[in-house]
């Protein structure tokens, strides 16, 4: 296993970390260099106490002083628990892995619970790999390509210079193809990676600026580099332990990374990788970056999962585990005990608890207006006001989801501004949970019940439509 195969074959671990509903959040929104949250900053509004606590946690994480512990975000639905976890991860920097797992995902037919958790843990640990490559950087003087008469085989020469020197390189077929793909011509300043053959156009040399008219206004002009043509450059990739596992698991191969269909990974593979990564670390080739594993709806886990987490937190290679729950005192699954947040007491003992509380109308309004901006939807003042009321009476998430729908409704009547009528329409099209429960209780016979039976028709009676609970006029 070589470092560069891993680096080349793995997707970047920051890849899909942005969950759409939280795309407006870019950090915890703290005062510069302090632990104090601003009232509204980096997409975050209100929830100041919880954000301040999160800022302290963030600081502990940065100082590496939180090993073996976990954070529990506890609060009612839609009070920003996931948002705060996102905020922490954003503040840690873009190459710190953030993995989000809904506790129910652990229960699947393909993977055992512990395998699913192990994979999630290892996805959340980054390995920052340093690699040296040789690059050639200079201004192209001339490209000469000789095509053989039969077509296939190509040969060529590239003359390239810096302000101090000039050299001619022989070109192979692969390099000729990349030069023509990048449309490199004399006067371009390029960077050429010797190992991979990758060519990057850096711009046009200033010495060619008199060709301006022929180049068009988009051309970027750069200085011809000075010094040596060949340089060594250090490049850094961050991949997760899980990605390394998958690439090296002979039964899977790296294609499994794209399908996500990784199956169980043998523990010998993981042991070998831990040893190897340990060696790289010793040799200064790699650095371990504990990322964040966010486990949402953690009360859905059972006692076996909690024991696993308890043990995994003790491991040398542990990520920062942030859990969220909206349960109060409830039963721990798989036991007969009741405990706060449904967490077993030994785990509860390890966690730092941050609690979130419901938002004021004004805060809801601000968050909704940030969401509208993020989705590039223009809301009229009245529409925002009514959406805020919907948010207060249902949930922030529900009202935030209405923005997209209302925008489609507005587009249908060819308006670029979402107005009250569009919100009303969206509200009546899609139920919030409370109206859905009401609808179910009124039409219970028409649904498949626990015995597997349902009434399909009952004389001429039609299924009752829902009535809008709130009077939005
Ligand atoms: N303080 C906040 N500032 C900005 N947006 C927020 C805040 N709290 C919640 N949101 C947004 O509101 C929606 C619901 O919040 P979420 O974090 O999913 O709630 P929870 O995880 O507590 O159920 C999300 O789109 C989230 O990004
Ligand atoms: Mg959530």
Automatic annotation (TrEMBL):
Record-listed E.C. numbers: 3.6.4.12
- Please tell me whether the keyword Nucleus is annotated for this protein: yes
Which cell locations does it reside in? Nucleus
Q: Which SUPFAM superfamilies match?
A: P-loop containing nucleoside triphosphate hydrolases
Q: Which Pfam families match?
A: TIP49, TIP49_C
> What's an example GO cellular component term for this entry?
Ino80 complex
SMART domains reported in the protein's UniProt record: AAA (SM00382)
Principal subcellular localisation of the protein:
nucleus
Q: Which GO terms describe its molecular function?
A: 5'-3' DNA helicase activity; ATP binding; hydrolase activity
Q: Where is the AAA+ ATPase domain?
A: 67-358
- Keywords of this protein's UniProt record, alphabetized? Activator, ATP-binding, Chromatin regulator, DNA damage, DNA repair, Helicase, Hydrolase, Nucleotide-binding, Nucleus, Transcription, Transcription regulation
Q: Which GO terms describe its biological process?
A: box C/D snoRNP assembly; chromatin organization; DNA repair
Gene3D superfamilies referenced in this protein's UniProt entry, alphabetically: 1.10.8.60, P-loop containing nucleotide triphosphate hydrolases, RuvB-like helicase, domain II
| Reaction(s) catalysed (UniProt annotation) | ATP + H2O = ADP + phosphate + H(+)
Q: Which family does it belong to?
A: Belongs to the RuvB family.
The function of this protein is:
DNA helicase participates in several chromatin remodeling complexes, including the SWR1 and the INO80 complexes.
Q: What is this protein called?
A: RuvB-like helicase
User: Which species does the entry assign this protein to?
Assistant: Geotrichum candidum
